Amino acid sequence: MQRRHFFSGAATAVAALSTASVGRAALAGLPEAAAPAGTATQVPPAPPTGRPFHPVVTLNGWSLPWRMNGGVKEFHLVAEPVVREFAPGFSVNLWGYNGQSPGPTIEVVEGDRVRIFVTNRLPEHTSVHWHGQRLPNGMDGVSGLTQPAIPAGKTFVYEFTARRPGTFMYHPHADEMVQMAMGLMGLWITHPRLDARGRHPQIATADRDIAFLLGAFAVEPGSRTPRVNEMTDFNIWSWNSRVFPGIDPLVARRGDRVRLRIGNLTMTNHPIHVHGHEFEVTGTDGGTVPPSARWPEVTTDIAVGQMRQIEFIADEPGDWAVHCHKSHHTMGAMGHDVPTMIGVDHRGLVGRIQKIVPDYMAMGERGMADMGAMEMPLPENTHPMMSGTGPFGPLEMGGMFSVLKVREGLARGDWRDPGAYAHPPGTVAREWQGPAEGLPPAAAPESTAPPATPAAPARATVRKPHGAHH
Amino acid sequence: MSATSHPQNRALRWSTLATALLLAGCASVSPDGLRGDVQAALQGRTAGADGALLPSPDPAAQQAADAAINGWLAQPLTEEAAVRTALLRNPGLQARLARLGVQDAERVQALTLPNPVLALGRLTNPHEREIERSIGFGLIELVTLPWRSRWQGSLREQDTLAAAADAARLANDARRAWLRAVAAQELLTTQERMHEAAEVGAELARRMARVGHWSRLQQAREQAVLADARTRLAQARLAAANAREALALTLGLWGAGAEAIVLPGRLADLPAAPVPAEGLEQRALRERLDVRAARLGLDRVADQQGFARVGPLFGEIGIGYQRNTTTGRTGAAAGHAEVQRGWALELPLPLWDAGGASGARASALVRENAALLQQTALQARAEVRMRWRGYRTAWELAQAQEQQVVPLRRLIRDETLLRYNGMLASVWELLAEARQSTQAVAEAIEARRDFWLAETDLQFALAVGSPGSAATVAAAPSTASPSSSSSAATAGAGH
Which residues of A touch B438 (CB under 8 A)? Predict the structure, then answer.
């Protein structure tokens, strides 16, 4: 990954997008509207100008460069239509900032004077609300209430001082429902001012500081654009507009202090669960949680419009799942109306259905795990309900799922995927090879319930189609 | 008509008689009951089965027809073979052709000269006995024979055209029955397919309910789909069986012959492009049998009009030869016989009827027939335009159904399969789309059938007459023999 260098005054031409063109003259005095390269996580370097801080790593994202102008940090956000790849083979038409959804992370330091130029290349007006910030009322970004909306094609400027350290978001507050459903959002980190030793009394220095926003989209299978009017029946559950297996792993050296900053801009809550470690919530968008008020957790619920900052020491080597604990949220697109087929005898019917639909295959008679194993053709641009393969087979996951990879002796700035974990011998669950008599009794409670209808004996349910398309 | 025995007059007399006899001889019954003429008029009007033969009373020809029909029935019955079989076997057509023979014989009968009248009289008075012998015949019959024979030829031609039109209508009906039978059989297979899909869905629903995955409500919905499919299947079976029955009936087949019919699997493809409308109306006016028949009728009454001026005046001219013998009975004259010989001519005096009414009638007849010809021509043109429009629209609808609707439905089914693969849709949704796509195929079959039916009717309207009306070409009125007594033999057509 390359950090873009840019120099004041030389405004390079920006890729003009379809909607409203912004005059070059209007942009001449502005900082360059930087754009990202690709969908991989871009690890920012140490800040080249301004106060020092430890940059965060935006999962599958990047941080926005700035220029110093008379002691003021100047950023330039461009709201515009983008195409976001959520996972290989699955891309969605979204609205984003500077070529990506979510937009680039804005990182400043407590006390910084910040000036943000916002250029609107959307087809309609917009505004930016700096969620959680202390700022002058007129800078709060609520169109109609605190400012006129930014018309298409215009550039507005916001200016305030970042008064308190913490984890924040930015998102539109004009036609908000549509613009958030289209993916317009970004992260804002205000780093604490550090003492001479580079420390802060209440905010620990994290070795791995990782930030992402939770997103939910309703993308009809086979289509490319979210249904903006959906409120409950979402099918794409994303971190920074990526879904498993398109989400980069969270890499840590054994013993690292890991901080996850997670913001929720979906329509429902997400209990985020970390395997193998306990963590504490050390802060919210409301600020730092005093150490005396923290308690251990392995799952924390992030409600709508909230941010949670959790920290733990990654001291257990391995490949640990990190995911939303709502199981539907770790699935790709699925049919919520598809009936349960488990234990339904298909004997004598498969051939008859194949006469009518030649490529039909019976699925679901034993459960849905077939889906993870079989690579059946799907509608175009559709992320499978279950996918991903690990060293031991299909993961049968999708959506809000990633892997915390803890390894011995990684270099401090090394974020590369270390591959599959090599388990010490004898530490992996395995099939029991001994005699059945050696097993403890599998006791069952005494029950008066009538036996359930015996299901059909388990048989292979996957029948390869034969016969050609026509 | 003097009775002199001048040699010149004698020669004239004999030649007149000879001519009359010759003309009378010309009016003979057609040996094949006019079948050859009907066959000729049928040319190009047998619904695409070029040179299809009519049944023949000849045993050898009948054997050849049997062999040909057996050959056609031994393989899937083509459209053309269906038309040929119908023309050879349909009893209605055989009755029609026999009727044509009857009409012909009746006309010949009407043309034959009336037999001469022999009159004998014996008169006595006290003095003498008189024996009168006379032979007489209607002169007018003889004199008008050339005209009448010409008109009768025209009437015969008109009757032949009417019979040919009925044969062409049968060919058309056979083609339509074949189209309907083949389409009905194709439609039955689509209904069987839809029924199969509904049956599998209902069975799977039953198994779902059995293990507790589905409620009675959910199961009932799939059962209702099956019940509906069963109804449609039963209707399709009935329609296919009846269409087959109707085909066999039109072909004149029954029993083993009807059983032997094997229908091909599908109707012919649509043509790449429909025929353009240019020149069709002219073709109809040139070729349509009803227009030809109307023209014949007009020509004939126009020809008769000239005769009508003189006909009534000489309508009852009679000529006779008399030989009277008078024999004395008494006195000196007893036993003495005296013979009188001579020609007698009966001539009506045109005191009351000088031909005025007759002339008026004849010219009205001409006007009537001219108007009828005009009406037939206008009707032919309008019909061709309407039929072409129907044909063109049927082509567009069938083309759209085949090129757009069916592929779209197949795409929907295939996309539903992809969603089923991704567990985004259920097997019941997949089966429902399969039924929908088969339904689109069924509608395409119907549209294709309707196109070919429209094409058949267009061809009929171009070359024969009005599709869908019972009598295409009015047969000439059967002409009573012109009486030698009442009004002249101006047997007009078209009343």
Answer: 356
